[in-house]
Structure formats: C-alpha cells, structure tokens
Amino acid sequence: MYSEWASLSAQITANSCGAQCFSVLNKFPASAGREVVVSVVKQLGTNLGITQNAEPSHLVKDEEVKWCMDVICFGLSLPLQEHETIKDCVNVYCEWLTALHPQPRISVPKPICEDANLYARQIINHFHNLFVPRQGESADTIKRQAVLCHRVLRTLQQTAQISQLMDRQTWDTLLLFLLAINEILLAPPTVKDDVGDQLCERVLSVLFEVWLLACVRSFPSPSMWKTLQESCAMWRHRVALVDQWNRVNLALTARLLEFSYGPAFPQLKNADEDGQLIPIGMSNDCVAQTWYRFLRMIGNPTALCSPHIISKSSHFVQWALTHEKGAETHQHPCLQQLPQIFLNAMKGISSQVDAFLGLSKTSLIGLTGGGARNAISSSTTTSSTIAASTTSGASSSSSTVAIGGSGGGAGIPAGPGIPGSTGTGAGGGSAPVPVPTTPTSTSGPPSASSSINSLPLTSMGAGVELAVARPKCNSILHVFHEWLFEAAHIGGDTWRQNRKKQACEASKRPSSMIMEHRKGSISLSQPNSLNDPQSLPPTLTIDKYESGRAEAIGTLCKIFCAKKTGEEILPVYLARFYMALQQCLKITESRECDETLASILLHSSDLFRLDLDGINVLLPGFIAALEIVLPDKDLKLKTQSMVFNRTELRRSAINILLSIMVLPLHYQTLPIRDLTSETSEKMFTFIQLKSRLMNILMNALQVETDAQNTHMLLGGLLLCVQDAVTFEETELGGGNANLSHNSSGVQHHEANLLSSACSERSASLVSAGTASLGGQTTATMGAGSGSIRDTASAHDYPSLTISDDMSFEFGQELEGVTTYDNAHALFVRATYLVCHRLISSWKTDLNVSLAALELLSGLARLHIRETDTLVKIYEASQNLTIISSDALECKRAVKWICDYICYQCSRPPPAHSKDLHSTIVAAFQCTAAWLMQHPYLLQDKDCLQTVLEVVELGISGTKSQSKGTDIPKFKDEKELKPASMRVRDAAENLLTIILEQVGYFPSECGPESISSLLDELALMKHCNSMVPAAAASSEQAIAKFKYFVTENSTILALLEEPLGNDQDPQPTVTLLIRGPFGRHAWTMQLRHLPRSKSGIKYHAVNPGRPIPMNDVTQRLDCEQKNFPDGVDKVQPCVADYSIPTIEQMREQYGTASIRELESMLENQSIHEKLAWAEADTSADSLSHAQECVPPAVCHEFHAARLFLSHFGFLGFETRNPHNPAEALGNPPQRPLIVLDTKSTAFAADLDRLDKLSARTHDTVYVFYVKSGQTSAQQIIANMAEEQSAGHDPHFASMLQTLGWPVQVSEHSGWTGFAHNSWSLKGTPEEQLKSTANELNYNGSQRVLYWADVSSEIAFVVPTTWNLRYNSDTSDGGSISSTDQISSSNVWARGESESAAVLAKSKSRNLSLELDTNRRDAKEPVPPTRRKGNVTKPTLLAQAPAKIFLVWLESYEDYLNFPLEDVLAYTRTGEELHTLQLPRASDCHVIFVHSLLSGLLRVKLQGPPGRMSFATPLVDGMVLSRRVVGNLVRQTALNISRRRRLDNDNYQPPHVRRRLKVQDIVQKYKMDLSEAELLAHLFQRAI
Predict the structure, then answer these.
(1) Residue 272: in which H helix or E strand, if any?
(2) Which of the chain's ends, N or C, has fewer CB atoms near its CB within 10 Å?
(3) Residues 6+ apart with CB under 8 A from 1308
(4) Pairwise CA distance, residues 1297 & 1355, whole Å
C-alpha cells in the first residue's frame, strides 16, 4: 500500500538516540550535571504557580530559554531516585507547552510564546528522555515514572486537541515522538510490571487518538502511515495493540456506516468513550481514508499465529542471546499471549463484518480497560441502497481496491504489507464499502474474554435480522477476504502442506546472519527451526489458535449467509470458502465438537437455503458434523477461549438439518463430488445420505431436552415422512419403493439411540436382498434409557406385547433385509418414537405436547401403501423385540394417546391448569383423527373399549371400571366431575364422531357438509299436499311441521305427510333433527312386515264367500227343562216363600197395575215383529246373500304421535331430584318441550341455527409478491388476469394442492365469507360465466376448499373485488343488527348474570383451579356452563386467526410485506362479532420462497406467544414442492387450533349450536301440562 514511500523509521531512531545527546551537561560528570539541574529547575518550578502565585518569566531572550531547556533536557534523563527534580522538569515543560494554547500561562517565557511551534518541537523531543526505561529500578520508582509519563501524555493530548497554532512540522514531530516512545516502551518483549507494561495501554491510546486528530488537522503523509504500519508490526506481541486497534476501527466503522448507508441503517453503538475517539470535524472522505488505513495498520492478523515472525525483532534476538540457558527468540514467555491476541484481532474483524451486515447483536469487546462495549441498535430499515464505495480523502485522488492483481488469493487483493498486494495508490485507497438486504445469520459464539452475549433468538430460532440495505457479500469480502480465508485454514491440511513447502525452500539456503535494514540490528534467522513445531512451547502449538480460527470461519459463514436473492458471489470466493469449510469440518478421531465445528454450525443456519452455487459439495461434511452434535445427549465441547451455549448450538444444527432434509429425495442418484479427491472412490449419491439424515433426526429427537428444539425436530420428522410417502405415491407410482443403494459406512450408535443405522455388511445385504423380498421392511429401534413404566403412578401404560402367532424364527428371517428408510418404515419409527417420548418425557410441556400430537395427527392422515409388511422394533429399555404390522402400529398409537389422556386427567389438582386441559383437548382431537383415518380400529374390541373408556373419563371425570376386575359403575350412580368443561366438550365431540362419522365420512353430501342438505323448504317440495308454487317461503313450510325439543339440546321437526309415496301408504313421519352436531333428515315408517316382503299384498280386493257345508247334522228333539226332575219333591222352606207368586202380587198391588205391564209387553212384541218383517224385505237383510268387502285403506295417520310414543318421548315418569344430571344445575325437565312456531321470527332463528356450522372454519389468504413489490395495490394486482402469465408456474401447482376448487354458488360449506356460507344452494337462477383465469379464487365465484370431519378451511386469493365487496358489506349489510344480538351470544363462554360475575368466574369456568375457600383441595371443582339469561349478547373476545400464505419471488421482500394494507382485502364478515378488528400484529404469515433448485424455503412470522407457532412447518425449513400444499394446510389448521386452545372464551361449534338451541327454547317454548301436550298431539298441522 505504501511500497513507493520511504519509511521514517531511521528518523525515529535518530530522535531516540539524539535526545540524550542534546544537552551540554552530558559532557560533565553526572554529579555536576545533577547539581546544575536541581538548582536551576527548582527556581523555575517555584515560578509556575503550583505552590505560590505565578509570575511572568524572567527568561526574555532565546539564548536564555535554550540554556534552560538544555538543563531540563538533561534533568529528564536523571535516574529515578531524583524524582522531585524530574517532576519539576516535567511541570516546567508542561506549563511552557501552553504556549500553543489559545491562552498561554503567565509563566511561559516570551520567546516561547513568540515562536511556540519551534520550542514545542524541542520540548516534545526532550520528553523522550523521560520515557526511556531505567534498568534495575524498584517497582515503586517505576510507578513514579509512570505517573510522570501519564502527566506528559495528558498534556500533549490536551495541547493537540485545543491548540490552533500547531503547524504541520509540529504535528509530524508530535506523531514521530509518540511513535518513538511506543517503540522504546513496547518493542521489547513484555516484562510484567515494568514501565512498558504499565504504560502500554495509555501510550497506544494517546498515539491513536492524536493520530486521528492529526487526520483532521494535518493529514499524515504516506511515509508517516508507512512508519506507523512498520512500528505496529513490532508491537504485535502486546495485547493492548490489538485492543486499541479494535477500538479505533469500530469507532471509524460506526461513522463510516452513518454516511455510507444513511440514518436508516442499524447504528453501531460503541461505548461512550469510544464514540468520542473520532474528532468532531472529520469529513466523510477523511473518515473513509482513515478507516481503510487503520484497518490495514497491523498487517495480516494471521502473522500472529507464527511466533517466529512476531519475534524476529532485534529486541527478541537480544533476549535470546543473553538468555542463560540459550533459547530461541520465539520461546519468550510473553509470546504465550499470541493465541489470545489472534482471537481478539479476529473478533475485531468479526465485529466490523457484523456492523456492515447490520447485525443487531452485542458486537464486541471487553478488550479495552473500560470494557468498551458495542452494540447495534435496531432501527427500522427501509432506505434504499446507497453507493458502494466511499470517495478517497486527503490527496483528492479517488481509487478503489482493484480486483485481479497479483498476490493475494486467486486474483483478489492481498492485505497491505504483503508482498505483491494490489490496492490503492498514493492517495490511499478507499474501501469499497458495500451495500445492503435482510436477516438470516445466527448469533455469534460468546467469548470468555469478551462481552459478546448470546442472542435471544426469534420465536423459532431461525436467526437474527440483517440490515435491509447491507452491502453485497462481494464488497465485504473484497475488504476482509484474505485475512479471513487465511485464518480459517490455520492448522488445516492445506496450511500444514504450505508450511512444509516453505520449510523445504528455507532449508536449501544456508543459515546466515541477516542485517535487518530497519535499525541496523542483527537478526539471527535459522530457517531449519523456522517451522519446526517441536521447538515451539506447548502453549503455542497451532491448535492453541483454534479460537481465532473458529471466529474467522464463523465470520465467513455470516458473510456468505447474508447473500440476497439473485445476488452474485464471485466463484473464486465461493471456491475458497468451500475449501475452508471442508478443512474446518474435518472430524477428529476423538469425535469431539471443537470450537471451529461449533462456530461453523452456529453461523451456517442458512447456508443451504440461499441458492449458493455448488454448496451441496459440503453436504457429507455437514452431515458428519451433525452426527457428532445432534445425537449426543451430553455433547463433549472441546473449547479454549470461547463459550458456547449448547442449546443454541443444537438449535442451529437443527436449522441446518431442516434445510437439507429433502435433498436426498430431490436429487436422488445425483453424485456429490469430493472437493479434494479427484478419483470417484469417495463419491456419494444424494440418496445414500438419506438413511444417515433419518438417523440424525430420530436420534436427535430421542435425546433433545429443549422445548423449542424439540418443536423444530417434530416439524422436520413430519416433513420427512410426508415427503417419503408422497414421493412413493407420485414418483414410484405406488410400486415397490425399495431403492437399492449401499449405505455409506454409517457407524453403529450406542444401543440406547433410536437408530436404524446399519453396518456396511448389512447394507450390502439390504441391496442384495431387496429384489426377492418385495415390500417387507425392517427397522431397528431403541427407545432410550427412560423406562416406559412409571412406578410412581398407578396408571396403566401401553402394553407392548404382540400377538403370539408369529414365530421367533420368522422375526429373525426379517432381520437385516430390505430398506430401512422407505415411507412405511419411517411411519412406524416416527409413530413409535413420538408416542413413547410423549408419554415418558414431554407430557408436562404444553408446546412440545401439542407439537407431538399435531405430528401424530399428521401421521394418521398419511396414506401409506397397503402392505402386510412386518416391522421389527427393538425396545432397549425393556429389552423387548417387537414385530409389528400397520394395524398393530395404529392400534398401539391410539392406545398410547388414550393413556396420555388418562395420565393427564389423573394428575393431582394443583397440576390442573388451562395448559394441561389444552393438551387433553388436543389429545382427544388427535384420537379422532386416527379413528377417522383408520376406521377398522373400532372393529377391534380392545381398541374400542380403550377409546370409549377415555371418552367416559372425559365426560364424567371417572371410569366405570378402574380395573378390569371391578364391578362397573353405572352412569346414573356416578357424580359428574369432568376435568373441565373444555375436556368434556372434547370428549363429547369424539363420542359423536365415533357414533356418527367413523367409516361414514364423507357422506353422500360430500366433505363440504356433515349435515343433511335438506331443510323444511326442500322437504315440502317433495310433499304431495304442497302446491309447488306455494313452496316459496320457509314460514309456509315450517307451518306444516310440528316442533319439539328434547334434552334441551335437540330440536325435532316432524312432518306427518308422506313424501310422494301413495302406492304403498304406511304411517310415515319425516324428521329434521337439529342437534349440537348438525342437521339430519330421517324418514320413518311403521311397517308390519319387513321391507323384503312388502311387495306381497296383505289384503285382497274380494276374498269371495266360503263354500257352504251341505251335510246338515241330525237334531234330536228333547224337552228343555229349567229345573232338575226331582225339584218338586223337595220340601219348601220358609225362605222359598219369601218370593211372592204373581197371584200374591196381584192381590197386593191390584189388577190395574198388572194389566198395564202386560199391555206394555204386548205392544213391544208387536213393534219387534214389525221391525223384523221390514228388515227381511230390504236388500240389506241378512237373508239376502251378500259378500264381505274389506274396509277402505286408511291414508291418514297420526304418525308423529306414534313416533313419539314408540321412542319413549311421551313417558311422563317423575324424575329423581338426586340424579347427578340435576347436580350440574339443570332443572328437572320434561322429556319433550313443544315450540310455538307461529312467531314470525321463528324461521329466522332456525335459519341462524343452520348457519352455525358444526365444524370449525378457517380462512387462509394467498398472495403472490413479485420481486421488489412493497405496496398492497401492486401485490393484489398480481392476481389480475392480465398479470397471471408472469407468475412462477409452481405457484399455480401449489394452489391446486391446497384444496379443491368449488363454485361458491353451489357450495354448502364455508366459503371464506360469512354471508354466503352454509346455505343450501339450489340451482343458480342464471349460470355465471366461468372465469378465464384459472387462479381466480377470490371468493366471488370460486374458492379453494378443504374439509375433514371436524374442520373446514377456505383458501382465498384476494383481488381488487375483495376490497369492493368488503366496503359494501362492512356497514353490517351481511348480518343484521338483530342477528348480532340474538346469535352472537353463542360465541363466548362464561357466567352471564352480570359483568361482575363474568369477571369473577372467568378464571374458573374453563379449567379447574383450586378454590381452597370452598372445598377440600383434593376435590376437583365441578365445571359449570353459563346458565340463566342466555339472550344477553356477548362478543368474541378474540378474532379468528388471520393466516396469510405469501409466495415470494425474492426472499428479502418478506421484510416489507404490507400486512396492515392487505388486511382490508381479507374480511370475512365475522369481524362484526369481535371486540376489536384484526391487527397486523396478530396475523400469522407463512412466506414461501422458491429456490433455484426447485425447492421451497419457508419463513414463518406471527404474534409472539407461547402457542403461536404450530408444526409441521418450521421457520427456515426447506420443502419439496410435492408436500408444500399439504404441510401449509396442516400448519394453518394447527395454528388455528392452537389459537382456539389459548382463547379463554372460545367455545367449540357444537357448544355454540347447543346454546343457540337453548336460546330458541327460551323464546318459543309452550308451557303445556301433560294433558295439554297430549291434546296438542291430536291437532292437525295446518
């Protein structure tokens, strides 16, 4: 850099020697000189105003002043015993130097005031004598010398700062003086506590601070800079040099950033005293010039790794020659500081790189005495990029660092002072100061000797934010590459080879005495020992420089990780970087993680996500590093000076793992070349690395203890299994998925690791045996040292015994054959591992439990190819070997999830919290997912019993049978004490799914509805009595139905008219059942014959007469007797005479009465005879032969009455007041409540009930952001038809995998808009013309939709139409105000008597909290649901989650995504129900960026919170396009589920429907007695 300029070293030497020869008194004996000095200086000292008032000096002539100065010059060189005299000399000179001040002291002689610069230069030179170390002085006198030196330095510094008179010559003299005293104090080897050691920090700081001042007042000449650089090279064995160098560099860098990148760039904050290093008047050009020159001042820092180079000065040679035992120069004890000095230098460079990248981390460094700490304050960065290179300073010639000269590495400028370095010319070069993008790199390793703090990572730990306007990587590398690349190679193979080469060359020259040109001193060079590691002391071996090397490679990783989308990095930089990384990733035999490896892993999180050309050559090296760090529970860290946080290290390693997970299946058989070996022996293919990656993942999950890391690993696990399954379905067409390949020498792990790693031998067996054994798979697993059984709990853990009908020999046959890592084996391993860890270690952590249950739900949804494959699992903790099949694995998973629920419910009351109940609810949802996807599980008696027992536990709080031998306890006898209402609701939901949906979903209506698509209006259209034209209004249709409510939660609508079924009339009733879980339509008939025989008519039109029987039997005539024959012979008794004879009657009553009676009898007889005669003559008389005719068929039935009676709804038995059903606060109710349907509002309320879906619903908004777009209008306009041609083609294919397209006009599920969802759509009046744009899913005509049994999700791609639609309906047009009042009460849960009650009970009504005031601590508090005034309107306390899916062309655009502005395009109409409108800070955003490789990079952004980030997507994950739709959908669903779990006031859909039914009951019920109810049943509907 200054090769054309002469050095001023000789002048410094001359000054040093000359100062002692200046005085005449040197010619006399020392005692005489001393006496002169004492008497003269004492007189001068008394006049200074220190002890008495100052007076004007008596020295008025130049000669007088010069004579006195001659004396003082000699006085300054006196032995330290003359301390007082020396002190007076110092005081006099310090006072006289005020001649340069604006206001000189009164005691300054007049000649000095008149020519201040001339005298000041002499005084400054004379001061040299004071600083010369005196030999053999005591520590006390050395301290006194140091105090005087401090005084002089302070005076000189103050004078330089405030003087306006100093000319250029004086400045040069001052700088040369400072260089000289530094030389004399610092160049010799360090001796503890000598004057050099005591003053080291101070003389350097004064030198640098005055030098910076000179840059403003009188910019030093190139010769001066060259001299400074040469001098610094002599002081590199001093720790303080690098510390002060770092201070100045960082202070200059802070100023450089200010004007290079503007105020928006993150500011580098230094300690206050460091911030004042830069003089106020320094111009921008001057800052740039000074920054670059100071940066290059100490030469190449890697020289610090060579004690031979550092110790080649004459001072070290002199020490070596005088050493009593004889020693080499590089063996001086002070050189043992070199590793620490090297580390500090690297840290300084690293901090500057951080500053240029805008890293908001504590930057450096407790290196200076004051512990100067620097941090970067994060300021919002939106400014555009600013010019890349600063203009040059002083000499006004502008120049930049040239690329492509000689020297350096591969055409890049070498560091200054290196022979052949190219760079700037005379004017001094300006660094091409780079230009800014976004955040990616991770935190730097904290160092023991520095104040670097470990960063708090973002919520998912994918790195810290970089400045948007940061420089390009090339720009930073132009400045620092040579030092960093060299430092990264120190101690590596290439470094050793180079040293050997140098040693060979040196050995060819004879040992010689070399005259060193600088000081005429002799330097002994012994080339043979130059590179002889044996001659180095053990503290200076090359491995001691590991910390500095680690810092250098970490800094390089940070630079390369700062690459922006589309940014080019010079191939030569990439090549050198890959070589350095490969060297640093070499694994030692001890398989320990050293500082270099840890530093690489900590700073390389993003390396595989950035489209770096050729980065995949490093894949085997990184996998080997991950195999050391991740599977090891107690990671051995081999560190010297750096301190690593193991959790952060593992997190960073997991980030790398997540970014390379999908590479094997993406590139498959593509070879990976080895950088160093040219032969193909060591070549891997990508697919060979798959099993190693799987093992790392499984083993890491097995030993991970940090919750956030576990969360990330679980997301990665589902990605792997999903990718493998989809790969086999799509790429292999569902055929045999065995990919034969040799596994690449994976070592066996310890037995307690869940590992499927196989040895070379078994790997060859695998590849040889695949063809014959088809799809059979073997996986060996160990479940860790933790025992599955928890003896502390009486809880029954899953039994691992497997069916006995499988022979042991068959299990042995399976061993070691077929692949370990196909989709099926991964599914089995993942299920087994996660279930085991969930119940053994994760059950107490909310987030990990939720992530594990989300993963299990995801595994349940996978469609693994049907296979009878058996999988072998080794369970280490119980020494079991398990042979499993698919069905068995699924059954075991369900059993373990049920056991998990049991365990959580059985925990003691203090443990029952909202979090605990959230995990139980999530476990119920997970069980439902498994049963829905695997309905055959319910055919298994054990599985069915397990699941139903858990449902019972959830609903009632206890099981009927705690053990199999107990007598079952019936539900009437049990007290209802569920863990909480949320748990009870979840258990009810699971029970309904088991009874109604498993094996039946999706129904004929399709997945878009779990309710019947028939309502009253639709049924009446099929009814005979209804004139089609009249079936226009729902009120008319409702009038035909009778409405009853049973159990206060189910509305029955009964229609007694048959639906067009005249040919075979039966008692028919049509039911519409509206319950908590939807609307169902049933038609019932009362049949006396089964349907199979109903074709046979059971009545004939005319059965015909029976044939008469002609053989009449003979009749015997005989006299009929009323009494036995002998009755007359019986003697009558008195009683016989008690009944009078007719004669006696006649006598008693008279003849007239008797006659009257007789005439009546006679008349009656006549009438009867006439009537018979008349009947005989008529046609209908029995005497005429007439046929039997059957009665007419009855067409009218009271079928409703029959149905209600047959189904037991009309039983009016009294209810038991002690029944537990009443214990929950429900009043005793009749089994049936009649609703009054005459009210006009009834139809509207019924419609609102139908509009409450029985499933959860969510909406995801999809946006496409082209490169550089930042405004909402631009982003929305991308989806216009004319714009869609410019989209990434993979965007359209991703949309298709999110859901299936539906026409809104025909769709009966959630559409993304409240006003038109869940309505029964008939055929549209007019067919809307289909849109030409296939991506038009904005909700106006089409939308993407997906649903399962418990949730539905709409994917809306907003366009400008959405904004118009939202502005039209935002005034509440879609939902009337009465609707809000009447239906919105179903959204919140809580006591609703008053606000006070609500507040009081809020903490109690969801989860069980202990209430010591009211009940014993052991008793759980029975949960209560709202009761009383159910019509009171309450609002949703938390809006549904807003989830955005954003496709980025340029990854950095995620920083500028206009969340606030796009919210206007994402209204659903539900916002009216919320207490607050959705805010940007509450939105969850899933950014997807397409890499050049065809893979996709994910960035998650969301509100901070314990539960905001759901799996399977993890921030920073890299996906294949095969699985992106599936994983995005699962993540969106899981985010929404977590938000619901976390919302205190959330109610499940079926609870909302139940409350709405109760609302309807309150409004429309008729209070009828039993008699009135029965009478009502006999009344006909209109």
Answers:
(1) helix 272-275
(2) C
(3) 1005, 1008, 1009, 1013, 1318, 1319, 1320, 1321
(4) 11
Distance CA 670, CA 1448 (A): 28
- 957 conformational bin, left if phi > 0, alpha if psi -120 to 50, beta if neither: left
Please count the other Cβ atoms lying within 10 Å of the Cβ belonging to residue 876: 17
CA distances from 1063 to 320, 664, 1055 (A): 124, 68, 19
Q: Is 1339 helix (H, G, I), strand (E, B) or coil?
A: coil
**How would you class 1155 by CB atoms within 10 Å of its CB: exposed for 0-12, middle for 13-18, buried for 19 or more?**
exposed
d(CA 1096, CA 1078): 38
Find the helix or strand (DSSP H, E) in which 286 lies: helix 284-295
Task: Give, rounded to a whole angstrom, the gap between the first and last alpha carbons of the chain.
Answer: 106
Under DSSP, the state recorded for 842 is I
Query: pLDDT tens, 1164-1179?
Result: 999 998 888 887 777 6
Task: Sheet containing 1233-1235: give its strands across.
Answer: 1078-1085, 1068-1075, 1050-1055, 1042-1046, 1233-1235, 1565-1566
Nearest by Cα to 496 from 531, 539, 538, 547: 531
* Cβ atoms of 418 and 381 closer than 8 Å: no
Helix orientation angle between 886-905 and 941-956, rounded to the nearest 10 degrees: 20
Please give the full DSSP string across 129-157, using - where no structure is assigned.
Answer: HHHSPPTT--HHHHHHHHHHHHHHHHHHH
Please provide the DSSP assignment of 582-604 as one string: HHHTPPPTT--EEHHHHHHHHH-
Per-residue confidence band for 926, with pLDDT thresholds at 50, 70 and 90: very high
> Which distant-in-sequence residues (6+ apart) come within 8 Å of 200 by Cβ?
185, 186, 238, 240
**998 to each of 441, 897, 930, 1229, how far by Cα in Å?**
48, 18, 10, 32
Residues making up the chain, counted from first to last: 1582
Contacts of 983 by beta carbon, 8 Å cutoff, 6+ apart: 905, 917, 920, 921, 924, 954
More confident residue, 1330 or 846: 846
Phi and psi at residue 1243, in whole multiples of 5°? -60, -40
d(CA 786, CA 2): 67
Q: How many separate helices (H) and strands (E) can be counted in the chain?
A: 52, 25
Alpha helices by DSSP H, listed for 1488-1581, are: 1524-1542, 1549-1564, 1570-1578
Residue 394 confidence (pLDDT): 36
Residues with Cβ within 8 Å of residue 1411, at least 6 apart in sequence: 1404, 1421
Angstrom distance (rounded) from CA 654 to CA 660 = 10
Tokens 């139908």, residue located: 1250
Per-residue pLDDT at 819 exceeds 60: no
pLDDT band for 901, please (50, 70, 90 cuts). very high
Side-chain half-sphere of 588: how many Cα atoms within 13 Å? Answer: 15
Please, what sign has the CA dihedral across residues 417, 418, 420, 424? negative
In whole angstroms, give the CA distance from residue 594 to residue 447. 14
3-state SS track over 363-379:
EECCCCCCCCCEEEECC
Nearest to 1335 by CA among 1274, 1271, 1288: 1288
> pLDDT (tens digit, 9 = 90+) per residue, 1381-1430?
333 333 334 333 333 333 333 333 343 333 333 333 333 444 555 443 33
Whether 475 has a pLDDT exceeding 80, the answer reads yes
Element (H, E) at 636: none
d(CA 1449, CA 200) in angstroms, rounded, equals 55
Structure tokens at 1364: 């118009």
Q: Which residue has the tokens 């503007």?
A: 262
Number of Cβ within 10 Å of residue 1033's Cβ equals 11
Which range is least confidently modeled, 729-738, 981-990, 1122-1131, 1335-1344?
A: 729-738
